[in-house]
Design goal:
Outer membrane efflux proteins (OEP), 2 domains, 6-stranded antiparallel sheet, two-stranded parallel ribbon, 9 helices
Length: 494
């Protein structure tokens, strides 16, 4: 009777666990790799930072392009009053003046990118009421001055073009950096995704081992109770059961930690539960190593970044050479001025205003400052050229290493597959012995664990191969599975 009660309690317990697992599975979010990558791109903290850097570079370029268009400005001085007593050298007397005025200044300014000049159209309109003690007269009336001005730098580099080009390169570099970070994130997310899957598999294996050990424990307990087996076997069975239970609980903790790390990586809430759903089926891919290296050297964005660094260093050289340089400036201005007490008669007797100015800056002696700074900048350019060659060599070396790893992993996949087949045949044979009473449950559990380990090893070899294929895609920017190039560069709408 007591035996039936125990069996009934066990059935109830198993039923409760079954219902709990069903409810828990409904609360979990099944996540495939592509979905995880999309979540990571949108929510990952590192990608948010890189995206903001890209936005900043784009907006800086937009602002510079806007600054190259015509600029309209208006400044107004509604009222101004001054009363001054000062010594007048012309008449050798102290003189008091009182002035009340108001004016407005309207300016249209246009940079000229081609020559680094600036053309401006300026109109100044005002009213002035002025009294002088010396003449005892009050002069008042309206005035208007319209002028067209040109300021042209001479014998120096085009600063407007250089600044614009620097911002264009900064934006391109930000786009390249975004793409590089996106590929790096894809690698990190894929590794973490498969690591969570590996922990899920390990937990399943540990769970199966725990269940098998519980069954073996019941068998040994019944034999000991019946006096068929020695009491020492019961002690060993209890130790084995406790060990497998501890392994199961350890795997639970490891899985939960892996899932939390994965959620932080992709920017997912820590309070959301998930279960990864990978596709680990893989077909080995034939790879032409020469083609792979050519793709890497032609497409790797790090090489373009090195070239941008070289071009930026050349800009620094241009600016350095401009230190203490011989340069000039040309200023031209033509205008029309008119004044009258009546607003409508301002240009009744207009006056032409013209001016031309030409100035030069001539360096005499700088104690070798310019020469030394030029040499230092040239050394920086040479360093960047060396870095470019080093990057090319590193890319070639990395691709060759990945290629060798893929060949090795293909062999490991074949060995792991054969090991699973052998372990399955061994387990089937010993299962028949167990059914015939020629093998204990503990011995059968050993073969079960061996089969589970071989299956997990085979899964791990497939995952390693897929990760190395992803690494090759990142190294070459070519997807050898889909046989198509990869173009991850992102641009923002202006």
């Amino acid at each position: 009777m007591k035996r039936k009660v125990k069996i009934g309690n066990r059935i109830i317990l198993l039923f409760i666990l079954f219902i709990f697992n069903i409810l828990n599975s409904f609360s979990q979010k099944g996540l495939v790799l592509e979905e995880a990558l999309q979540i990571a791109e949108a929510n990952s903290p590192s990608m948010k930072k890189v995206r903001l850097s890209l936005v900043r570079s784009q907006e800086n370029l937009n602002a510079q392009n806007a600054a190259l268009k015509s600029n309209f400005s208006l400044s107004v001085n509604p009222i101004g009053y001054s009363q001054i007593r000062a010594f007048n050298d012309l008449i050798s007397k102290w003189n008091s003046t009182r002035t009340t005025e108001s004016f407005g200044l309207f300016t249209i300014s246009q940079p000229i990118v081609l020559t680094d000049a600036r053309v401006s159209l300026v109109n100044r309109f005002g009213y002035k009421d002025s009294y002088s003690e010396y003449t005892d007269l009050t002069t008042k009336g309206f005035s208007n001055e319209l002028s067209l001005n040109l300021d042209q730098p001479l014998f120096t580099y085009n600063r407007t073009k250089l600044q614009l080009r620097e911002l264009e390169l900064a934006l391109e570099n930000a786009q390249l950096n975004y793409a590089i970070q996106l590929l790096s994130l894809e690698k990190l997310v894929t590794q973490a995704f498969y690591y969570v899957y590996q922990q899920q598999q390990s937990l399943d294996i540990a769970s199966q081992a725990y269940q098998n050990m519980q069954q073996s424990y019941e068998v040994i307990k019944n034999k000991v109770d019946a006096g068929i087996s020695a009491r020492e076997e019961m002690f060993q069975a209890e130790l084995n059961l406790a060990t497998t239970k501890s392994d199961f609980e350890n795997n639970q903790v490891t899985l939960e930690n892996a899932k939390d790390d994965f959620k932080i990586l992709i920017g997912m809430s820590l309070f959301d539960d998930l279960m990864v759903l990978p596709d680990i089926s893989v077909d080995t891919v034939q790879i032409d190593i020469a083609f792979a290296i050519d793709q890497g050297l032609a497409n790797r964005m790090e090489l373009r970044q090195r070239e941008i660094n070289i071009e930026t260093s050349e800009f620094d050289l241009i600016q350095t050479k401009a230190l203490n340089e011989f340069k000039g400036s040309l200023g031209l201005s033509v205008g029309l001025f008119g004044d009258n007490e009546n607003f409508g008669n301002i240009y009744e007797n207009p006056t032409d205003n013209e001016s031309v100015s030409l100035s030069f800056t001539i360096p005499l002696w700088d104690w070798g400052e310019r020469k030394s700074r030029i040499k230092a900048t040239e050394a920086s350019i040479e360093t960047e050229n060396i870095s470019l060659e080093e990057e090319k060599n590193n890319i070639t070396l990395d691709i060759r290493k990945v290629y060798r790893n893929l060949l090795n992993l293909q062999n490991q996949i074949g060995i792991a597959r054969q090991s699973v087949t052998n372990a399955q045949l061994t387990y089937d044979l010993n299962l028949e012995k167990y059914k015939n009473g020629d093998l204990t449950g503990m011995d059968l559990n050993i073969y079960q664990n061996q089969l589970s380990e071989k299956q997990l090893s085979y899964t791990n070899s497939l995952i390693s191969y897929k990760l190395e294929l992803l690494n090759l895609k990142i190294q070459t920017l070519y997807d050898f599975e889909k046989k198509e190039p990869v173009s991850p560069v992102m641009t923002l709408d202006k």
